[in-house]
Specification:
Blueprint (H helix, E strand, L loop, with lengths): L1 E2 L23 H11 L16 E7 L2 E6 L5 E4 L7 E3 L4 H4 L1 E6 L6 E5 L8 E3 L2 H4 L1 E6 L11 E6 L4 E6 L6 E2 L8 E7 L3 E6 L4 E5 L8 E6 L5 H9 L4 E10 L2 E10 L28 E11 L4 E4 L6 E5 L5 E4 L10 E4 L19 E4 L5 E2 L15 E2 L6
Parallel strand pairs: 21-23
Antiparallel strand pairs: 1-26, 2-3, 3-4, 4-5, 6-7, 7-8, 9-10, 10-11, 11-12, 13-14, 14-15, 15-16, 17-18, 18-19, 19-20, 21-22, 23-24, 24-25
Organism: Dipteronia sinensis
InterPro entries: F-box_BR-signaling (IPR050942), KIB1-4_b-propeller (IPR005174)
Pfam families: Beta-prop_KIB1-4
Length: 393
């Protein structure tokens, strides 16, 4: 599913193969589900949930994660289950934020921190850039809300934060070593894997969402030489982003290369080339994803090994929980491909002509990129779309 909130929702169902662990006929799971439905779900006078003062900050296990600007409380909503809302603790103590307010006309967010002078306020047009980079759930809340844990990459330092369902506050995971972090995934409700900017990995024990996660492993790794050379050769033409994905038990590192300025022929150009003597207005050359590298972690040798094919699998990457889907379950998905949405937060709001637009399907077989939508789609999409992978019940 590709979802762009608040007003628009474009849906593509991402089906997962059913398993015994997701069988809703089990009595205890039905009881857990009923308990989730009893959680308070506030509506406006028209009977609809009011998201006007909220920002979608990700999705995980089929649930959308929102941040309420006024209270700084994140909450969970499942677009496939009506009248369900799971409230999480305020982020104020974790981030040191006193208040967040959005200017509807300019689209800017005003952020007031505890340690700032009274007359000083911080501004940003993209909350994901400086408040919450990524948010993931330890498991699907429908399968047991008591074991639910939420992990975030937060703040400019991009450290790890955590809370269990029912906690009154968030806690920073101070034992983290490889921050600033680029991505996090929760595997099998037991492990948290965190990826540093240098491609090093940490593994944390989640303990079924009942305690603070404990770090079990630090894996110091060399950044893959092929990807390192790519960026050093074209340092001012590309920016890279890193993702962690669990593919059938294999831990994958995905390196995404985004051309800073890409013309209509998919050529990366220098910023100085956007304005010539003959032009009165600069050329519009938005940033665009052009290439991916994929690696698998060899735990024994402690190194990243290049992956040339994903087989029947397709990866879904962006600002949401990174997932792998087997294309044999649904033939609409292209095998050996990477589906991606825009998460270039640093530049998403710099121009009124584009931003949120960088979506597509990358083929590992022929190294090509195809659009997700037909041509003619607006290059400015606010808020940017994200993937939602609903569980099968």
């Amino acid at each position: 599913m590709v979802c762009s909130w608040y007003d628009n929702c474009r849906i593509k169902r991402m089906r997962k193969s059913p398993s015994s662990s997701s069988n809703w006929k089990h009595k205890h799971e039905i009881q857990d589900y009923k308990r989730v439905r009893e959680i308070d779900y506030k509506r406006n006078a028209a009977g609809q949930e009011d998201h006007s003062r909220c920002t979608c900050i990700g999705s995980s296990h089929g649930w959308l994660i929102f941040l309420d600007h006024k209270s700084s409380h994140p909450f969970l909503v499942n677009p496939f289950i009506q009248q369900v809302k799971i409230q999480l603790p305020s982020l104020n103590s974790l981030l040191g934020i006193l208040k967040i307010k959005k200017n509807i006309q300019s689209g800017e967010y005003f952020i007031k921190y505890y340690n700032q002078p009274k007359n000083k306020v911080s501004y940003t047009k993209q909350l994901r850039q400086i408040v919450l980079l990524k948010s993931v759930l330890s498991s699907d809340p429908c399968l047991g809300v008591n074991s639910l844990g939420v992990v975030v990459i937060y703040g400019l330092a991009r450290k790890l934060g955590y809370c269990n369902y029912g906690d009154s506050s968030w806690r920073g995971l101070e034992d983290g070593k490889f921050w600033p972090y680029s991505d996090i995934i929760c595997y099998n409700n037991k492990k948290l894997y965190a990826l540093g900017e240098n491609a090093c990995v940490e593994a944390w024990d989640l303990l079924d969402g009942k305690c603070v996660p404990t770090k079990k492993m630090e894996i110091e790794l060399c950044f893959p030489s092929k990807s390192e050379k790519m960026l050093s050769d074209f340092r001012y033409l590309y920016v890279r982003k890193l993702y962690l994905v669990d593919k059938l038990g294999d831990l994958l590192l995905v390196v995404r290369y985004i051309g800073e300025f890409v013309n209509g022929d998919n050529e990366v150009v220098q910023e100085d080339d956007l304005l010539t003597d003959e032009d009165t207005h600069p050329l519009v050359c938005p940033y665009k994803t052009l290439l991916f590298h994929v690696y698998k972690l060899d735990f024994d040798e402690r190194r990243w090994i290049e992956v040339e094919s994903l087989g029947d699998s397709a990866l879904f990457l962006g600002g949401s929980h990174s997932v792998s889907v087997c294309s044999s379950v649904d033939s609409r998905y292209k095998k050996n491909s990477i589906y991606f949405t825009d998460d270039y937060w640093d530049r998403m709001e710099e121009d009124y002509l584009y931003g949120g637009h960088d979506m597509g399907v990358f083929s590992l077989e022929d190294q090509s990129v195809e659009p997700i939508y037909l041509s003619g789609c607006s290059m400015k999409i606010q808020p940017p779309p994200c993937w939602v992978a609903p569980s099968l019940w």
